[in-house]
Write a structure and sequence with these properties.
- The chain is mostly helical.
- It has 3 domains: 91 residues, Fumarase C, Chain B, domain 1, CATH 1.10.275; 232 residues, Up-down Bundle (Fumarase C, Chain A, domain 2); 59 residues, Fumarase/aspartase (C-terminal domain) (Ribonucleotide Reductase Protein R1, domain 1, Orthogonal Bundle).
- Helices cover 60% and strands 5% of the residues.
- The strands form 3 sheets. It has a two-stranded antiparallel sheet.
- Strand 1 and strand 2 form a beta hairpin.
- It starts with 13 loop residues before the first helix and ends with a helix.
- It binds arginine (ARG).
- The site of arginine has 10 residues, from helix 6.
């Protein structure tokens, strides 16, 4: 069935029908299309376009359809142009000619906007839930090793010692911002477009606010032409999704490295690793690599939709049908990646020895020593220079911080006073960083409590 045709003399070619049909992918909108149609039918009744018995018949038939869409049989042999056409055809099969009234004052242009908005709203709610669970997993892991010291890096070079919990909380903050971004995207998604018609607004006295209330929208959209041509809301979602994936991919990259033999900090669980068909010893971090890879796919979806929308003349253009494969593809990747990331976090164990050894084998405590000198009154640049020389000599002689003590430090430079040797131990320097946001044990314990409280407040 087609929702148009009167103006044509011959049919469309089979080749073009295949080319232009979207049912293969937009069938995922079946449920929201039906729910949106039910709300539309009720609005038609309120506008006295449908009688009460007609409304009942249509809503009832659509209810029945909701019960059938989970079965693949519902879509079998369907050759409809899109999901909107399919739903109306099925309605017609059930209730006959009355179904022809459903499209009064409605266009697929406002219908598809309504459908995607309803679909994305659910998806965003799910992503936000998954993000919260991932954040809870990070806190759980931090709580298991609250005082473990690891090496922090800049430029992939050993930089300064930090608490593992502090490192995990850094990702907690990134994911907290991602949740905010999803929430902001949701506000722009959750506006009700029905009643916009094809582009000029509906010619019937549809009470749009009522539809918005029934479908749980915050309010109605303001301009029918904007609705017909707008996919900003989907791009907002893809932006939030892309940043969440970016953060996931950085976590993935860290942990791929940290769990490898060269670092040896993390033991990934069997639940998220794979073996090799040839090399019996391998335990590969495929879950993390896939998250990293899927991140690229989501960025691709995001830029694809930008390219699709760029330069489109007002208002609707069929190009816009290409939005859905990108939205669905990104949504599947994000959902899957968030869930698997949580599983990885919950099944990975930190081995405290190797990351501490990485600190001890390096001069990651150099800043702590320079700070100690500065605290005693040595201008920081001079302190930096003294410790720089200490590091140079140590590197030349193959010495690590453990090879120094109070006496040898004082002999190296009289600026080193008794007591400063305690900063050769990374724990001492960490304890000086108790500013809010720092890696000091009390600051981190406080940050953990605060993070947990924030998590509890998240819906
Ligand atoms: N399948 C179309 C899409 O996804 C629905 C809107 C069709 N509108 C039209 N004027 N052909 O964009």
């Amino acid at each position: 069935m087609k929702l148009w045709g009167g103006r044509f003399e011959t049919g469309t070619s089979e080749l073009f029908e295949k080319f232009s049909g979207s049912l293969d992918f937009d069938k995922r909108l079946a449920e929201v299309d039906i729910r949106g149609s039910q709300a539309w039918v009720r609005a038609l009744e309120r506008a006295s376009i449908l009688t009460h018995p007609e409304t009942d018949a249509m809503v009832g038939a659509l209810d029945q359809m909701l019960g059938q869409i989970r079965s693949p049989a519902f879509f079998e042999n369907a050759s409809d142009e899109d999901v909107h056409t399919l739903v109306i055809r099925k309605l017609k099969d059930q209730i006959g000619g009355l179904a022809d009234k459903i499209h009064t004052g409605r266009s697929r242009n406002d219908q598809v906007s309504l459908d995607i908005r309803l679909w994305l709203r659910d998806e965003i709610d799910c992503d936000m839930r998954l993000l919260r669970e991932l954040m809870a997993a990070l806190i759980g892991m931090a709580r298991r090793r609250p005082s473990a010291i690891v090496c922090g890096y800049t430029h992939t070079r050993r930089a300064q010692p930090v608490l593992w919990a502090h490192y995990l909380l850094a990702y907690f903050e990134m994911f907290a911002r991602d949740r905010e971004r999803f929430w902001e995207a949701r506000a722009r998604v959750n506006l009700m477009p029905a009643g916009s018609g094809a582009l000029a607004g509906s010619g019937f006295p549809i009470e749009r606010e009522g539809i918005a209330r029934e479908l749980g929208f915050d309010s109605i959209t303001r301009n029918s032409m904007d609705v017909a041509g707008d996919r900003d809301f989907a791009l907002d979602y893809l932006h939030a999704a892309s940043l969440a994936m970016l953060h996931l991919s950085r976590l993935a990259e860290d942990w791929i490295l940290y769990s490898g033999e060269e670092y040896g900090w993390l033991e990934l669980g069997d639940a998220t690793t794979t073996g090799s068909s040839m090399m019996p010893q391998k335990k590969n971090p495929d879950a993390l690599e896939l998250i990293r890879g899927k991140c690229g796919a989501v960025f691709g979806d995001y830029s694809a939709l930008f390219m699709i929308m760029k330069g489109l003349p007002m208002t609707y253009n069929r190009d816009m049908q290409e939005d859905k494969p990108r939205i669905f593809d990104a949504a599947d990747h994000v959902r899957g990646s968030l869930a698997v990331a949580e599983l990885v976090v919950n099944t990975t164990r930190l081995k405290t020895g190797p990351p501490l050894a990485a600190v001890q084998a390096s001069w990651a405590v150099a800043t702590d020593l320079a700070d100690a000198l500065a605290r005693s009154g040595v201008p920081f640049h001079q302190a930096h220079k003294i410790v720089g020389r200490l590091v140079l000599e140590s590197v030349q002689q193959g010495k690590t911080p453990a090879d120094w003590n109070a006496q040898s430090l004082a002999e190296f430079d009289p600026a080193f006073q008794p007591g400063m040797e305690r900063f050769l131990d990374p724990a001492a320097g960490i304890e000086t960083r108790e500013l809010p946001g720092g890696t000091g044990p009390r600051a981190v314990a406080h940050a953990l409590d605060e993070a947990e409280a924030r998590l509890k407040g998240m819906s």
